[in-house]
Design brief:
The protein contains 14 helices and 2 strands, in the order αααββααααααααααα. By secondary structure, it is mainly alpha-helical. The protein has a two-stranded antiparallel ribbon. A hairpin with a 2-residue loop joins strand 1 and strand 2. The longest helix has 19 residues. The termini are far apart.
Length: 248
């Protein structure tokens, strides 16, 4: 079976399943036409289990995705946004279809991020937050979205993406507290040994300056690093902890 030999409606159905794995039968019929789903099922291209639709083989959907043009993918994301029932998924499809900055859509994504985070869908929240940042118009303040995305990437264990996001921005964020938090968050990104972690924490301490609350946060991280990670500089850790106590 070659995906290229399938009729356009069946290829569109497979592409929809590649872009939205949880697609249901009524939604599939809306996207591909009333007869496309039954035809695809009868010819063994998809499996129907009640309202649940799956490709007969995962590689069929992947092949349809590889064969589709970028425009086809974007247009189908727009159509998917009109039929999916979950609000976070709807906004995500709209974002995936968008190629230009869009202040209103970025604002809708902020709300979807909050809802996804509240129900523990951290990876979805990170994807939504990434699109909110991407769609922020040039000149609009984006530091809040940068820091929220960084926190979500840390929670999701996305070390590479965290470093790629924050490393170029940490030193230039407009708010001192954000600069401190950014350098601390970078210790959970891609680092090459404890010397890198210590350098980032020292930079965070420098950024904190005479702000006691910020210094306390960094000193606690430094004390933990010495005592827990290094497990050797206990006296140094004790001094850090004492300094943190004094700052508190």
């Amino acid at each position: 079976l070659r995906v290229a030999d399938l009729d356009p409606a069946t290829r569109r159905l497979l592409l929809a399943l590649a872009l939205a794995a949880d697609l249901r039968a009524p939604q599939a019929r809306d996207l591909a036409g009333p007869d496309a789903l039954e035809h695809a099922s009868a010819t063994g291209v998809v499996d129907l289990d009640g309202d649940r639709v799956r490709p007969a083989h995962p590689l069929l959907a992947e092949a349809a995705r590889r064969a589709a043009s970028a425009d086809d993918v974007r247009h189908l994301h727009t159509d998917l946004a009109a039929v999916v029932s979950d609000d976070q998924r709807r906004v995500l499809h709209l974002a995936l279809a968008a190629t230009e900055p869009d202040r209103a859509l970025a604002g809708r994504l902020d709300g979807a991020v909050a809802r996804a985070t509240a129900r523990g869908a951290i990876r979805l929240a990170a994807d939504l937050a990434g699109h909110a940042l991407r769609l922020t118009p040039p000149g609009d303040e984006d530091a809040g979205r940068v820091m929220l995305l960084a926190k979500l990437l840390q929670m999701a264990g996305e070390k590479q993406r965290l470093t790629e996001l924050l490393a170029p921005r940490a030193a230039s964020l407009p708010d001192r507290a954000d600069r401190v938090r950014a350098h601390v968050l970078l210790t959970g990104g891609v680092v090459h040994g404890n010397d890198d972690i210590l350098a980032l924490l020292q930079r965070a301490l420098d950024e904190a300056g005479d702000d006691h609350a910020l210094r306390l946060r960094v000193l606690c991280h430094l004390a933990e690093n010495e005592a827990v990670i290094e497990v050797r500089h206990v006296a140094v850790a004790d001094a850090r902890a004492a300094a943190a106590g004094a700052a508190a």
